[in-house]
Amino acid sequence: MDLVEVTHRYYRAVDAGDVQGVLDWFADDCVYHRPGYGPMHGQPAIAAFYGGERVIESGSHQLDQLLVDGASVSVRGVFTGRLKDGSQVQVGFADFIDYDGDGRARQRRSYFDTPTV
To answer: 70 lies in which domain range?
Structure first.
């Protein structure tokens, strides 16, 4: 299984607003850790987030680095887009993804490059 392509497919689905494509990428028993939100457990939580809770209205991910180590993938990139309040945003991010044997994300951790200290 080509985890590079599987990972790129996820970001294309997010950028296209394809909620079903995003859900198909996550395993049924997934956990998504994202700053500012409690851990999202399972498909219903992921659907609620991408179907409306997410503060991002639209945008695109530019992937600068993608590393595969067994069933784990690390991604570094920049997201550029518009938030639901109309403001523009450009933020660096890092994602750490663990895939199951079917090539679906069972755990994802996101980090954002924002000044906090």
So the answer is: 3-112
